[in-house]
Amino acid sequence: MEYGRVIKSPLHDIALPLSGFHWEYNKGNFHHWRPLFLHFETYFNTYISCRKDLLLSDNIAEEELFPKHSVLHILRVMQIILENCHNKSSFSGLEHFRFLLASTDPEILIATLEALSALVKINPSKLHVSGKLISCSSITNHLLSLAQGWGSKEEGLGLCSCVVANERNQHEGLSLFPSVAENECDGTQYRLGSTLHFEFNNAASGRVDQTSEKSKSTDLNVIYIPDLHLQKEDDLVILRQCVDKFNVPMEHRFSLLTRIRYAHAFRSPRASRLYSRICILAFTVLVQSSDAHDELASFFANEPEYTNELIRLVRSEESVPANVRALAMLALGAQLAAYASSHERGRILSGSSIISGGGNRMVLLNVLQKAILSVSNPTDPSSPLFVDALLQFFLLHVLSSSSSGSAIRGSGMVPPLLPLLHDNDLSHIHLVCSAVKTLQKLMEYSSPSVSLFKDLGGVELLSQRLQTEVHRVIAEVDEINNAMVIGYSTKCEGDHLYSQKRLIKALLKALGSVTYSPANSTRSRNSHDSSLPSSLSLIFQNVNRFGGVIYFSAVTVLSEIIHKDPTCFPILDQSGLPDSFLTSVVTGILPSTKALICVPSGLGAICLNNKGLEAVKRASALRFLVDTFTTRKYLVAMNEGVVLLANAVEELLRHVSSLRSSGVDIIIEIINRLSSVGEAKCEASGKLDENTAMETDTEENVSEGHDLVSVADSTADGISDEQFVQLCIFHVMVLVHRTMENSETCRLFVEKGGIDNLMKLLLRPSITQSSEGMPIALHSTVVFKGFTHHHSASLARAFCSCLRDHLKKALSGFSSASGSFLLTPDAATDSGIFSSLFVIEFLLFLAASKDNRWISALLTEFGDSSKVVLEDIGRIQREVLWQISLLEDSKIEIDGESSAANYVQRLDPRINEADDQRFSSFRQHLDPLLRRRVSGWSIESQVSDLISIYRDLGRASTRPQRRGSDSYMISRSTSSSRPQSDVSPDASGVGRIDDDKQRSYYSSCRDMVRSLSYHISHLSMELGKAMLLSSRRENNPTTPFSAQSASGWYPLFSFHHVGSLEF
Questions:
Q1: Which segments of the protein form a coiled coil according to its record (predicted)?
Q2: How high is the pLDDT of residue 562?
Q3: Separation of alpha carbons 928 and 905, rounded Å
Q4: In the chain, what is the greatest distance between 2 CA atoms, to the nearest angstrom?
């Protein structure tokens, strides 16, 4: 479903495009669905929030028919999305749910509560992560009223008794000989449950000065109507009669309506059954709401036996339908999840029998065993629903840190779950998946469970089921692809395929846990003779059919097999498994973060064997990094996983020493390939222009183009070539930074000339002159700081080599300008002066380190073969200070920033205030001038933040060349020469835009020369301190010639520095 079609359709026809919605994605991000939810809010504001029957106003009658069909479709879609999205805390539609909870249609109530249950449901994988509970503050009172049902057990209206009475009444209505004794019991139940007894205080009826008991009693109003189920009027009519007769205030009307709805539900068994579900659902939502502490305390004070009532429902196999038993089981699981998720909630629920009672857990385990054995019973189609609820509960039990969770791990859960591994019914595949997940977590926590599982043949069952599902998926994908060619609808097959892939992923994780977990020190005796290697080979050979997530799981299992027992490699090699994996790497990895980050670990495992190492070298498997770091189709996957991939590559090169040299060669090749790309335009041919659809979570999709989440998240078509190259450079800087932490790898990189290649890459104008390149510059300082530890001399030599040519070019430009004022748009062409100055400033920024080894090496280099470089830096400082003094004397009005901001707004009106603040904050961290003014600023503390910031820039860059409102960010992204005007349809506006760009550019140049002066001054001070310190040492590491050169250079500008300018 494309939600654009839903948004474009008329509101009154919204049900039509929603009718076919189903979930077909791997995982969801709620932010992607926000436009659709905003559209739902528009619908609710138009058709729901203004209805008198939902507002419960004085005039309750509503003439317009309630749009039940459309609302049910909306709530169903909301439930599906909320069940599959992880970041639901930003949901903002609770006010509309408050109105819907006042509906007198039980189907609307159930759909609303099911959507709310999906919203507040605690993900088992995040059970112990803080901040999981979602607030329902505006509706907690409504939920409490609905959860209280017909009344308390002490009143004879316990939940179980009411449900059983309703079900018995339905069955007895079909019997020729109903039980008289049971009918009399049910008659008492009906009289109690169908009697409306409601008390409320009417504050408006009393006077402040009334203090007697008699006057106080007049404030209490009691509504008592027996046999409400016999009345033919609907709930709203009865409510209106009570409001008119007893003058019920607005704040009590919802509670009164709830009591009317429950009492009136006894009019039919169907209505009673629906309200039984409503009661349990309301409690399930309430117990997981983050701010319902008071309401829960009040609920359990009134009904302390509620948990036991739920357990009685679960155990009532014949008298209670499976769907109600499933809801009761989900309510028990919600208690357990809430108990483990919040200390405050745990205090309230600590007395619950499901938390503290060990006997109840064994009872439920017996119920699970019976339910699994009868899951294929055709007479009860709702049985799988009940089994699914039981499996969810026991998964929570295994994951729980409570004493109950610890006890259940050793209580024999393995035997009841094994029969599900034999169930090949496609409609039960979600049950098999849940059972496998539970077994996998059980194996991680319990060593006895591992042994029991293996003794019962569980490993063989998992391997056989994996083989079955792998063959199924391959065949089904081919069938779906053929059906799509002829235009046949494949929705049902697509649903099954998605479920089968989820099961394969769970099976792979379970195999890794049960056979190779830390709790199991020995491998399975028959693991290599089983079908597991052949199944893994099939996954590697058909990676496009399975996707990146399954590929990641398969590589993980392969790595664990070899790491646990390296002697098994010959057997695996004989089955062709290592070759299948290497082929999948060489032929091209899926553009998926998961697929990319697992490859180095798989290669490392194969390299543990000499034959495997030779196979990796022969296949040149490490060359996958070249495409990964330079190809457009991997851009989004790299933005997400570059740090993890760099860490994995570093670990591989550290442990496999024979791959270090080739690994360094590949890193240098990546750097050279990016350096060869032109500044203005990427090469027309080659992989940099490859426009392949990228994949994040689309590996689970049936067909490309159906996943609007991936389309919104991974389309890189809007990223310009230069933006793409900048992102690639940042990625390779992360790789270099991480891999150079190993001293041996760093040594090879330096010996092979890697520093010179890296310098060439970083001196691109888009990095030296653009604020968008400043994250790369800042990360580069971390990389070069690593080189200073052991390779300061090589770094200093490369630094001076790069600096020499640009110094000469800048000095030549200054000489030709013969003292002219260059920092104005009215000046003549700068002849490349500023482009060289930008590079010089950037290089000095990289060199701004206080490391003694680096300064000493730099001082030595200046005194050896780079004496002229040191002298030229002094001459540049003199020219720069002269330009700054002319600027100060001229008193030119600087309006470049405001002009540039106006220019940006005209170019891209979509830039909003939040983005401006984002980029403004970004500049404050990265501007060479401002970064030195921040106290306590350190490079290392910013690296992680920079990766996140630059990732955001990469995502934002899918929009056409958007930039912030800061003129500095506009101007520094221009070329070193004076910028040319854009072609505009309005000829009269071309001149103004060109003028704005020129002013913006020269405003950037003024900022740059101030920063350059500062960095030269900083360098002079550091060299001076180094000479002073070295002169005090007995063993002077600084040569006399270098000290003499520096001392001769220092007077060139020291007299200017004494009265340093304020900027």
A1: none
A2: 92
A3: 25
A4: 118
The Cα–Cα gap between 109 and 277 comes to 10
Q: What is the pLDDT at residue 361?
A: 74
Structure tokens at 876: 């540049």
Q: Return d(Cα 55, Cα 53) in angstroms, integer.
A: 6
492 by DSSP, 3-state: which? helix
For the beta carbon of residue 849, count every other beta carbon within 10 angstroms: 18
Q: Which helix (H) or strand (E) holds 559?
A: helix 548-564
SS3 content of the chain, % helix, strand, coil (to 5): 70, 0, 25
Cα separation, 921 vs 927, whole angstroms? 10
Residue 932: per-residue pLDDT? 36
The per-residue pLDDT for range 516-562, each reduced to its tens digit, is 655 455 544 444 456 899 999 999 999 999 999 999 999 999 999 99
Beta bridge partners of 221: 200
Region of residue 156 (left: phi > 0; alpha: psi -120 to 50; beta: else): left
Mean pLDDT, the chain, integer? 78
Predicted confidence at residue 990, as pLDDT, reads 54
Q: Determine how many CB atoms are found less than 10 A away from the CB of residue 229.
A: 18
Q: Are 972 and 1004 in contact (CB under 8 A)?
A: yes
Query: What are the pLDDT digits (tens) for 584-630?
Result: 999 999 999 999 999 999 999 999 999 999 999 999 999 999 999 99
- What proportion of the chain, given as a percentage, has pLDDT over 70? 72
Phi then psi dihedrals of residue 743, to 5 deg: -65, -40
Q: Which residues pair with 289 in a beta bridge?
A: 134
- Residue 518 and residue 210: Cα distance in Å, rounded? 74
**Cβ partners under 8 Å of residue 951, min gap 6:** 639, 640
CA distances, 247 to each of 55, 202, 252, 603 (Å) = 16, 8, 10, 78
**Measured between alpha carbons, how far is 747 from 732 in angstroms, rounded to an integer?**
18
Closest by CA to 667, choosing from 585, 775, 743, 746, is: 746
Residue 701: pLDDT band (50, 70, 90) is: very low
Q: How far apart are the C-alpha atoms of 768 and 159, rounded to whole Å? A: 72
| Radius of gyration from C-alpha coordinates of the chain | 36
The length of the chain in residues reads 1063
Residue pair 636/696 in contact (Cβ under 8 Å)? The answer is yes
Could you read off the pLDDT of 195-227 as tens digits, one per residue? 898 998 876 444 444 444 444 445 788 999 998
Residue 413 has pLDDT above 70, yes or no: yes
Does pLDDT of 634 surpass 50? yes
Dihedral of CA atoms 40, 43, 45, 47 in degrees, nearest 10, equals -140
Sequence-ordered strand ranges (E) for 726-799: none
Alpha-carbon distance of 674 to 764, in angstroms, equals 10
pLDDT tens, residue by residue, 23-39 = 877 667 888 899 999 99
Percentage of the chain with pLDDT > 90? Answer: 36
Nearest in space to 560 (alpha carbons), one of 509, 503, 609: 509
Tell me which residue has tokens 């350190």.
938
CB 464 within 8 A of CB 471: no
The 10 Å Cβ neighbour count of residue 665 is 16
As a whole number of angstroms, the distance between CA 203 and CA 216 comes to 10
CB contact at 8 A, 904 and 911:
yes
Centre a 10 Å sphere on the Cβ of residue 246 and count the other Cβ atoms it contains: 16
Which pLDDT score is estimated for 681? Answer: 45
Euclidean distance between CA atoms 175 and 183, whole angstroms: 12
Q: Find out whether 253 and 235 touch, Cβ atoms under 8 Å.
A: no
The contacts of residue 646 (CB under 8 Å, 6+ apart) are: 734, 735, 737, 738, 739
CA angle, corner 358, sides to 353 and 361, nearest 5?
Answer: 85
CB within 8 A of 327, min separation 6: which ones?
Answer: 277, 280, 281, 284, 389
Residue 783 near residue 736 (C-beta atoms within 8 A): yes
